[in-house]
Structure formats: C-alpha cells, structure tokens
C-alpha cells in the first residue's frame, strides 16, 4: 500500500511534439507520504509541466513515473465556465469520490464555508469572480482527502483569510500522511516548513542545498523494484536513482545516523555501498547569488 502512495520520477523528460525542444529532461524525484515539497524556478522554466507530470495529467516523453497515490490538482487558472453552481459542482465531485449525495453536499458546504465561499454556494460557476472560482478550485481538490495534493500557484487570487486557510489545509494534509507539492511566487509562502525544495532550471530539476548545512552522501543498493524506507526519503535533501535498485541519498549530517538505521533495519535491509563524509554542498546553480 505504501509503495502505491509514494510517487517516483526516474529519468523523466517531457517535450511537446516529436521534435520539439525538451522542456524537462533527466528528472529524478521521490515524493514520499507525509512530505511537503516546494518547487521553484523562473517563469517558463517548466515548473507547471513538472506539476502536471506529478498529477499524471501529462505523460512523460521518456523515463517512468511509478506509484499511484490518490491525487488532486489545483491549477493557477481554474476553468470556471462549467454548467454548475459552486455547491452543485462540488457535490457532483463528491459523488464521484464515492460519497452519497447528502454526504457530498455536506462536504461541499463545509469546504466552501472554510474558504469563505459559503455566501455564493448557489452562484453559477460562470458568474464567479477569479477569487471565488479559485476557492472552488481549492475546495474541489481537498474534498476527496487526496494522498498527493499538487498546487500550482493555488494561492493566486485568494483573499488573505482564504490564503491562511489553504496554509492550514496543507498542514492538515501532511499531518494526516498525505504529500503536498506546491509552486508559489511568494517566497514567504510556507517558508521554513517544506521538507524539500527543488529548482527547475535549464530543463533540469536541481535539488536546493544552499540552506542544508553539512551533508552526508549515502550510496545504497537494494532489489531492482525496492522502495526506500520512507524515513530515509523524508530526511534526504536529494534522492537519485543511480541504477536499478541503486540510490544516492544526500542527507543533513545531523540525520545521517537515523537514515542509516532506517536503511539497515528495513525488511529486507538495504546494502550500504558507500558513505561519504559530511561536507557543505556548493550552492544550487539555479539560485540567485
């Protein structure tokens, strides 16, 4: 069950058209249950393409995506011209998630109230403002208790109380064991809370390490289809698959003992090939000086 909830991108690339330029290439990323992951990068760098791959809305042009967590996605711009009222749309989605109609309607009203959208629950979607439409977009993603929540500038257009409520909802998701991956233009958004920060630059995903302090690199080998222990993945600054069953983990030096213990006590245990001593990694080349 845990293997299905962990999403793993291995050597993933995406381009549009057979001969189109590569938007992303060589992307390795593990999103473990219970983690909060921030994606940064300049406009047009491929952040949204990466999020769509994580949400399985797009297929990779190369590489593979494994794991099947129940996923919800919030785009920056939500298509509001739908033939529903706000509450009717959410109720319909609730029934698709397996709720009875009365339970779906209760859940729809609950989420609309949480985001301050209760007064226009009966308003047709096409008549909602940008902010109102975005509140419905966030509510529809949270309605089904997703195991992976993907947020692409989801705070854009929300008023202050709704932004704060989305912050709380993100914390609730990760505390419940769900994973959240997000992009936001405001560097203060959830500052200091993310378990991992990655930067998209020049078509590649670069693992942010400038704030990690001293780190240790652990190279391990396991079965070809083996899954790394979640404790090890959560502690890692970066995880890369080096070969079938082989992984390189970069972890804060202060967490290295816990990571090694998780690897060695797993069933079956992982074979630790090499441990490189602690040192400071160079700044992320995609970050500003």
From TrEMBL:
Domain of life: Bacteria
Single GO MF annotation: ATP binding
UniProt entry tagged with the keyword Lyase: no
Pfam families (alphabetical): ABC_tran
Gene3D superfamilies the UniProt entry points to: P-loop containing nucleotide triphosphate hydrolases
Segments forming domain ABC transporter: 7-227
TM helices/strands, residue ranges: none
PROSITE patterns in alphabetical order: ABC_TRANSPORTER_2
Keywords on record: ATP-binding, Nucleotide-binding, Transport
Name of the protein in question: ATP-binding cassette domain-containing protein
Organism: Streptomyces achromogenes
Upper taxonomic lineage: Bacteria, Bacillati, Actinomycetota, Actinomycetes, Kitasatosporales
């Amino acid at each position: 069950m845990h293997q299905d909830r962990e999403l793993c991108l291995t050597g993933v690339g995406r381009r549009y058209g057979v001969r189109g330029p590569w938007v992303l290439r060589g992307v390795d990323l593990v999103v473990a249950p219970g983690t909060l992951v921030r994606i940064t990068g300049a406009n047009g760098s491929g952040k949204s393409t990466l999020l769509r791959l994580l949400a399985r809305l797009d297929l990779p042009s190369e590489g593979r995506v494994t794991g099947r967590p129940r996923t919800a996605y919030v785009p920056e711009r939500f298509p509001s011209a739908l033939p529903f009222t706000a509450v009717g749309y959410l109720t319909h989605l609730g029934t698709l998630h397996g709720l009875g109609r009365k339970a779906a309607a209760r859940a729809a009203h609950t989420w609309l109230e949480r985001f301050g959208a209760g007064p226009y629950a009966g308003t047709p979607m096409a008549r909602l403002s940008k902010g109102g439409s975005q509140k419905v977009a966030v509510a529809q993603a949270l309605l089904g208790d997703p195991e992976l929540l993907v947020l692409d500038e989801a705070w854009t257009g929300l008023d202050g109380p709704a932004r704060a409520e989305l912050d709380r909802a993100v914390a609730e998701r990760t505390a419940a064991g769900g994973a959240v991956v997000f992009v936001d233009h405001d560097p203060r958004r959830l500052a200091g809370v993310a378990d991992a920060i990655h930067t998209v630059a020049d078509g590649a995903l670069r693992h942010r390490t400038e704030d990690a302090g001293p780190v240790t690199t652990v190279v391990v080998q396991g079965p070809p289809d083996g899954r790394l222990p979640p404790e090890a993945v959560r502690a890692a600054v970066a995880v890369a698959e080096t070969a079938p069953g082989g992984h390189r983990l970069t972890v804060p030096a202060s967490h290295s003992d816990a990571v090694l213990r998780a690897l060695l006590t797993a069933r079956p245990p992982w074979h630790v090939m090499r441990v490189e001593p602690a040192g400071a990694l160079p700044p992320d080349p995609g970050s500003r000086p």
